[in-house]
C-alpha cells in the first residue's frame, strides 16, 4: 500500500488523529471490514454530499477495507470530497495522480492537489503535502509547474 493510502487508513484506525471534520458519521467512519449495510450507508451519505462519507468511501475502495479494492472508484470519491476543500483528501487525490492509480498519471494534477493540501495550515498532512508537491515538482518542466500553479490559483471549492 503506498504512503498516501496507508496514512488515510491509519487515520481511520486511530480516530484521534483524524481531522476535525471527521468526527461525524460514526458507522461510516468506523468501517473496517466488508459490511454491506455500512457500505450502503456510506454510499447513501456520499451521494448526499457528505465529504466525510466521500473520504471514507475513497479510503475503503483504495485499501480494499470495507469495499472491493478499486482505485478508480476511490479516485471518484476522493475527487468529490477534495472538491469540497478537504485538505487531507486533496493529499490522497494528489497521491493517486502521482502514482497513476485509478486516474491517469498526471504530475500537473498531482502538484495542484498537493499544493492545495499544503495550503491547509494546521490540517493533518499539510507538511506531507508540501514535501510531495516539492518532490513532484522535481519531475516537472517549468511550464508544467506554471500550469499547476495556475490551476491551483484558479481552483474553487464545489458543493459547499
Q: Please, could you describe this protein's structure?
A:
The protein has 160 residues and is an all-alpha fold. Helix content is 64%, strand content 0%. Helix 6 packs parallel to helix 8, helix 7 packs antiparallel against helix 8 and helix 7 packs across helix 9. The chain has one domain: Alpha Horseshoe (Serine Threonine Protein Phosphatase 5, Tetratricopeptide repeat). The radius of gyration is 15 Å and the shape is globular.
CATH top-level class: Mainly Alpha
Contiguous uncertain segments of 5+ residues = 1-33
State the assembly state of the protein chains: single chain
CATH superfamily: Tetratricopeptide repeat domain
Structural class: mainly alpha
Number of helices: 9
In total, the number of domains comes to: 1
Shape: globular
Radius of gyration: 15 Å
- Beta-sheet strand percentage? under 5%
| Strand count | 0
User: SSE order, as H and E?
Assistant: HHHHHHHHH
Q: Identify the CATH architecture.
A: Alpha Horseshoe
- Whole-number mean pLDDT: 82
Short description:
With about 160 residues, the chain is mainly alpha-helical.
What structural keywords apply?
single chain, 160 residues, mainly alpha, Serine Threonine Protein Phosphatase 5, Tetratricopeptide repeat, 9 helices, globular, disordered N terminus
Present the secondary structure layout.
Blueprint: H1 3-14, H2 26-29, H3 36-47, H4 51-63, H5 71-82, H6 87-99, H7 107-118, H8 126-137, H9 142-154
Helix pairs in contact: 1-4, 1-6, 3-4, 4-5, 5-6, 6-7, 6-8, 7-8, 7-9
Amino acid at each position: 500500500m503506498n504512503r498516501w493510502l496507508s496514512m488515510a487508513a491509519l487515520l481511520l484506525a486511530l480516530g484521534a488523529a483524524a481531522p476535525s471534520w471527521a468526527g461525524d458519521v460514526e458507522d461510516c467512519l468506523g468501517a473496517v471490514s466488508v459490511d454491506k449495510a455500512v457500505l450502503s450507508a456510506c454510499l447513501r451519505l456520499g451521494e448526499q454530499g457528505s465529504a466525510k462519507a466521500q473520504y471514507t468511501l475513497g479510503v475503503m475502495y483504495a485499501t480494499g477495507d470495507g469495499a472491493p479494492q478499486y482505485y478508480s472508484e476511490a479516485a471518484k470519491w476522493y475527487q468529490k470530497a477534495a472538491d469540497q476543500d478537504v485538505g487531507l483528501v486533496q493529499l490522497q487525490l494528489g497521491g493517486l495522480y502521482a502514482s497513476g492509480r485509478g486516474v491517469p498519471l498526471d504530475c500537473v494534477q498531482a502538484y495542484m492537489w498537493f499544493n492545495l493540501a499544503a495550503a491547509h495550515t494546521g490540517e493533518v498532512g499539510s507538511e506531507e503535502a508540501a514535501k510531495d508537491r516539492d518532490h513532484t515538482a522535481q519531475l516537472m518542466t517549468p511550464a508544467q509547474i506554471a500550469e499547476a500553479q495556475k490551476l491551483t490559483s484558479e481552483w474553487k471549492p464545489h458543493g459547499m
